[in-house]
Write a structure and sequence with these properties.
Distance between the termini: 48 Å
Number of strands: 8
Order of helices and strands: HHHHEEHHEEEEHHEEH
Strand content: 15-25%
Strand order of the largest sheet: 2-1-3-4
Number of helices: 9
Radius of gyration: 25 Å
Helix content: 40-55%
Low-confidence stretches: 24-28
Mean pLDDT: 79
Structural class: alpha+beta
Shape: flat
Largest sheet: 4 strands, antiparallel
Length: about 230
């Protein structure tokens, strides 16, 4: 039992390292070659766990080989255009200027019900409101509404709002997030002074954020119970 536990932990740690090496795309938007590699990795990694007679090296070597191959393929796909065209799917335009391309629908094996379902999920109820609907390389659908039916921008309204950037977490559940603090170029001294201004302490804070414009937001633990 102990041997099985140790082998499982070792394979788990090794796979985490491999997936980090292969890049963040492996965690979400997969292309065909990436999906195949991920499936192979999971199958190979499970062998020495389910069968303890198989040496760990029998799983580690194939995993290293697949990882090296996938990383090499990814580099080739970014450098060689013709290679990318062979191995990667091209985006498919399903709706162009409010008109459905039936050939592309058939080619991608997408039914009308599936198309309408995707449009509804993106807040579109009528095909005539769509300028373009495109199946991207990762299989997701991008829907671009016509200008007449899209939300007006601040530029359309003649406004110039101040950019606020993103929110950085400074305190999480009463603990300082040092990565967030470093990314905002703030110090613990500044943080302590800010908490004093809000008449609170570190232990009383459930969440504190700071955006790029300098606006902070503090949620106390007691606020959650109200």
């Amino acid at each position: 039992m102990t041997t099985l536990l140790i082998r499982t932990v070792l394979i788990y740690i090794f796979l985490i390292s491999v997936m980090r090496l292969m890049g963040k795309r492996q965690l979400g938007e997969l292309e065909v070659s990436e999906l195949v590699s991920t499936i192979l990795l999971s199958d190979i990694a499970s062998l020495p766990i389910t069968d303890q007679s198989i040496p760990l090296i029998y799983a580690i070597l194939p995993i290293i080989t697949i990882t090296a191959f996938e990383v090499t393929m990814s580099l080739l796909l970014t450098k060689l255009r013709f290679f990318k065209n062979i191995l990667s799917a091209r985006p498919s335009v399903l709706i162009r200027k409010g008109r459905i391309d039936q050939k592309e629908m058939l080619k991608n094996r997408i039914s009308i019900d599936e198309l309408f379902s995707e449009l509804r999920q993106q807040g579109v109820s009528d095909i005539s409101e769509v300028e373009y609907a495109i199946i991207e390389q990762n299989g997701k659908m991008t829907v671009l509404p016509k200008r007449l039916h899209s939300q007006p921008t601040f530029e359309d309204l003649g406004l110039s709002p101040k950019e606020r950037g993103i929110c950085h977490i400074l305190i999480s559940d009463g603990r300082i997030d040092r990565h967030g603090l470093k990314s905002t170029n703030k110090t613990e001294v500044w943080l302590t002074k800010t908490l004093r201004k809000h008449d609170t302490t570190l232990g009383e804070v459930f969440l504190m954020t700071l955006d790029d414009s300098g606006k902070s937001n503090i949620i106390k633990r007691s606020d959650l119970a109200q």
